[in-house]
Amino acid sequence: MDSIDERLNRIEGIIKKDSFRRNKGLGNEVGYYIFDYDPQNELKVREYISYLKNKINNNSNSSFDLIEFDLYNIIIEILREKGYLKKSFEFEKNKGRNFAKKAIKNLLKLSSESNLIVNHIKDNTPKNSVVFLTGVGKSYPLLRSHNVLNNLHQVLDEVPVVMFFPGRYSGNELILFGTIHDTNYYRAFPLVD
């Protein structure tokens, strides 16, 4: 396997291809991809994403926008907007972590069609863009990556979506941090082998 630097450096060439952004060559599958990496490379991956976003979005010749959604930041933003952030801390302190986690999941409507995180991503994604999903590790255990992908797949199918995943993706199973097995997810393709 290539080093993390070699794998990261291949991303730009892939996402700049017209065929990637039009989802050509995927057997009419929606363009969902996973870039898995060793969690110890988290900071390097974040730095690269920031660099690539600036490079693409500040280039007047770019034919698309690169949009990043940090799942953890979305959770915090929603909790703040709903006036629930301080209450969440109080729940955890007074009633325990499991109670707080359940209350937050209910507020975010993670198991329904009105999933606030998925709707936030859908509502803030321009048509001519590539979406990067980050913050997967920071969001655990509140949010499971398969939940986001399965629900997002139902409502966002016009632009390619790349999830940056701190763990392993075997092509049919997500293993967060290399140890936590998630529900099988079959619709995504590895972005870089």
UniProtKB/TrEMBL annotation:
InterPro entries noted in UniProt: BrxB
User: A Pfam family in this protein?
Assistant: BrxB
The protein's name: DUF1788 domain-containing protein
Which species?
A: Methanobacterium congolense
